[in-house]
Design a protein that fits this description.
Layout (H helix, E strand, L loop, with lengths): L2 H15 L10 E6 L3 E7 L6 E7 L6 H11 L7 E6 L7 E3 L6 E3 H7 L4 E6 H8 L8 E3 L11 E6 L3 E9 L2 E4 L14 H14 L10 H15 L8 H9 L3 H25 L5 E3 L3 H4 L1 H6 L2 H6 L5 H5 L3 E4 L5 H10 L2 E3 L1
Parallel strand pairs: 1-4, 4-7, 9-12, 11-14, 12-13
Antiparallel strand pairs: 1-2, 2-3, 5-6, 8-13, 9-10, 10-11
Helix pairs in contact: 4-13, 6-8, 7-8
């Protein structure tokens, strides 16, 4: 990034931090853009998200068109500011979704929507920013451990892709990490997992965590198990595999079990890396829908299975996030200037 871009980025951040003093009567636009759905809401400072609408990405030509359609039907004054969480790396003016065909210019979007200010972050960066505001009603504890106040936190979760972030204390504020941890190389903890990864490596080359811990990853797992078992691998969607698993299909059950086993391993790696004694949070679209299966799965056992560091891991709590759109909390925190991205 050049000096001009850096200066502009710095100035935009200052604009956002001072935004609470501007247009206090105007609503703010909150947007959570994933690979499958885009969720929109309006919010007044310190108020709840209102007029929440979910739209299919495939039903619109791009983000600007989708947001224009939302704002055309929304009640009340047009927003002067917006914050967008996007399932993609955010490194420059152009943003391209990882698991969908949309791409857009940050400046172009701001101009098209006639916004005074626009802030865009990775979707799990936004979720991380909202972690301190989650109440007990939005969390389900999985396993033991007690959170240490002010300690680092981690969040990850499978949906269309696999999002990963962390939240670090910096003075009296929090810094949310902007990384792409879903694309780390997926480790195997036993011979069966190694066989599945080897099978996918022959097809994909690099086998990232997202290749097996995501909606398409569940499909990959099921098909790999079918191939290793010598049975035909039908073309199924993730929810069809979940339904078969609950109906007694042994291969589908194994696929879901392995799915959460791999998630536990990757979550444990994140906890070790961050020293996340503030806890590890599981978000995303899949785990909450399979809440009972997730709780009964080997997730926590795999999370703690770090050899001589198993006792260390046992002290780190893990939670399932039950909030429908946790990114909204983080986006509001950005607009309020409470947390920032690093």
């Amino acid at each position: 990034m050049g000096t001009e871009d850096s200066n502009r980025s710095f100035q935009e951040r200052q604009d956002w931090l001072s935004l609470g003093l501007m247009n206090v009567s105007a609503p703010r636009l909150l947007v959570d853009l994933g690979g499958t759905n885009v969720r929109c809401a309006l919010q007044r400072a310190a108020g709840p998200a209102e007029q929440v609408v979910k739209m299919k990405v495939a039903e619109h030509t791009g983000l600007a068109a989708a947001l224009a359609a939302y704002l055309d039907t929304a009640e009340g004054p047009r927003p002067a500011s917006a914050a967008v969480a996007v399932a993609a790396p955010v490194t420059g003016d152009k943003v391209e979704l990882t698991n969908a065909s949309w791409a857009f210019s940050r400046k172009g979007l701001r101009d098209e929507l006639q916004l005074e200010s626009l802030h865009i972050v990775n979707d799990f960066t936004a979720i991380a920013m909202g972690l301190p505001d989650l109440g007990g009603e939005h969390l389900l504890a999985v396993g033991g451990g007690k959170a240490v106040a002010g300690a680092p936190m981690g969040v990850l979760g499978p949906g269309t892709g696999l999002g990963v972030s962390g939240l670090l204390p910096v003075g009296d504020r929090w810094l949310a990490l902007a990384g792409e941890g879903g694309h780390v190389t997926l480790p195997a903890t036993d011979e069966r997992e190694a066989g599945i990864i080897a099978l996918l490596r022959g097809e994909e080359g690099h086998v990232s965590a997202e290749r097996l811990i995501s909606g398409s990853g569940l499909v990959n797992l099921y098909q790999a198990l079918c191939m290793l078992s010598g049975v035909p691998a039908p073309e199924l969607k993730p929810d069809e595999i979940s339904h078969r698993a609950s109906g007694g299909d042994p291969l589908a059950h194994d696929a879901v079990t392995l799915f959460f086993s791999f998630l536990g391993t990757v979550a444990g790696n994140l906890a070790l890396t961050l020293g996340a004694f503030g806890g590890i949070y599981i978000a995303g679209g899949i785990a909450p829908r399979l809440k009972d299966v997730f709780v009964a799965s080997p997730f926590r056992a795999k999370f703690e299975a770090k050899g001589r560091y198993s006792d260390y891991m046992a002290d780190i709590p893990t939670w399932l996030v039950l909030d429908d759109v946790p990114a909204f909390r983080g986006l509001a925190a950005i607009l309020d200037g409470h947390r920032y991205e690093g």
